[in-house]
Specification:
Length: 121
């Protein structure tokens, strides 16, 4: 029986599945909220971000190898008693560029952060 992949939308999961490399497995695919970002996919080799912020209704699928990520942060306006994951946003730093991804729910934020941290450590 195939392992169930954590995901929000089946069409996003299928899109990630269609571009997998040999030996690459999907960990999770989460729908993103906010302007510009469609979803984030976490695999055993990279982070995949769908970016809808281009002019003319263009969409980019950006693959970021874990080896190129310099840090991952939880973005929050405040820390209320150490509850850093009450926010739903992470920031992924790649060179001089930062990708921000906003999630629905603290559990998804926490999971994405921890997966990325695991692979970049």
């Amino acid at each position: 029986m195939a392992k169930q992949v954590v995901h929000d939308r089946r069409e996003q999961l299928r899109q990630i599945q269609s571009g997998l490399l040999d030996g690459e497995d999907i960990i999770a695919v989460y729908d993103a909220v906010g302007a510009g970002t469609g979803f984030i996919g976490l695999t055993t080799r990279r982070v995949i971000i769908q970016d809808k912020s281009f002019l003319g209704k263009k969409v980019a699928i950006t693959s970021i190898p874990y080896s190129k990520i310099t840090s991952v942060s939880v973005v929050s306006n405040k820390s209320w008693g150490g509850e850093f994951f009450s926010t739903g946003t992470i920031a992924i730093n790649v060179g001089t560029h930062t990708y921000e991804v906003e999630f629905r729910g603290a559990q998804k934020t926490h999971h994405a952060h921890n997966v990325i941290l695991h692979y970049i450590s």
